[in-house]
């Protein structure tokens, strides 16, 4: 990473507020919305994300946004690159024929879906979200895309909670790029 990129990351990080004990006691919540409420920080974040994608995943053909904050970033990246932006949503939120993937959570299970007509075999997909914590959503999305015959080339997130080891739960061979790492 060059020093200009690192300085921009520091600037972005300085704009992200934290909220202790939210949404429940013992959790420190890093709020990306506090950063993107400022127009210049929005532009900064977009440029950092696009630069990261261009440098690490130049072959990307579609950007996959995870519900819900991932939609903001995936659209911005896809529009800048002139490629498709595809949402992955919770069960029952997408119209038309969908492909579904059920995955286990700490207490129960959930289902993610993508529209079948959006994916074609061999499509080079990049998963984008605001945060990687345990890696469950990214892993489930990767499995959903593979079920559809797509090729998952990587994952880009704005923030990574390193102590939760989410990166280690992502399927082998899927590189993860995070702009900011919190211990």
Number of helices: 5
Instruction: Give the tally of β-strands.
Output: 9
| Order of adjacent strands in the largest pleated sheet | 5-6-4-3-7-8-9
Strand content: 25-35%
The best one-word shape is globular
pLDDT below 50 for ≥5 consecutive residues: which ranges? none
Helix content: 25-40%
- The sequence of SSEs as H and E is HEEHHEHEEEEHEE
Round the mean pLDDT to the nearest integer and report it: 96
Rg over CA atoms: 16 Å
Largest sheet: 7 strands, mixed
SS-based structural class? alpha/beta
Distance from N terminus to C terminus (CA atoms, Å) equals 20 Å
Topology (SSEs and partners):
Elements: H1 3-15, E1 17-20, E2 28-31, H2 32-36, H3 39-56, E3 62-66, H4 69-81, E4 84-90, E5 98-105, E6 108-115, E7 124-132, H5 136-147, E8 151-161, E9 176-182
Parallel strand pairs: 3-4, 3-7, 7-8, 8-9
Antiparallel strand pairs: 1-2, 4-6, 5-6
Helix pairs in contact: 1-3, 3-4
Can you give a write-up of this model?
This protein has 183 residues and is α/β, with parallel strands linked by helices. Helix content is 33%, strand content 34%. It contains five helices and nine strands. The protein has helices at residues 3-15, 32-36, 39-56, 69-81, 136-147, and strands at 17-20, 28-31, 62-66, 84-90, 98-105, 108-115, 124-132, 151-161, 176-182. A seven-stranded mixed sheet has the order 5-6-4-3-7-8-9, with helices on both faces. Strands 1-2 form a two-stranded antiparallel sheet. Helix 3 packs across helix 4. The model has no long low-confidence stretch (mean pLDDT 96).
């Amino acid at each position: 990473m060059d020093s200009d990129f690192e300085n921009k990351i520091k600037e972005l990080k300085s704009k992200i507020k934290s909220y202790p004990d939210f949404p429940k006691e013992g959790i420190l919540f890093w709020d990306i919305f506090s950063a993107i409420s400022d127009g210049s920080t929005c532009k900064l974040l977009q440029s950092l994300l696009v630069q990261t994608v261009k440098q690490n995943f130049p072959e990307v053909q579609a950007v996959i946004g995870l519900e819900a904050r991932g939609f903001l970033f995936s659209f911005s990246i896809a529009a800048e690159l002139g490629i498709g932006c595809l949402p992955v949503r919770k069960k029952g939120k997408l119209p038309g024929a969908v492909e579904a993937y059920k995955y286990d959570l700490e207490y129960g299970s959930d289902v993610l879906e993508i529209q079948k007509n959006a994916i074609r075999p061999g499509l080079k997909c990049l998963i984008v979200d605001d945060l990687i914590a345990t890696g469950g959503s990214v892993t489930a999305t990767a499995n959903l895309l593979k079920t559809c015959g797509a090729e998952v080339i990587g994952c880009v997130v704005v923030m990574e909670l390193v102590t939760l080891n989410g990166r280690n739960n992502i399927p082998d061979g899927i590189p993860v790029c995070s702009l900011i790492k919190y211990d």
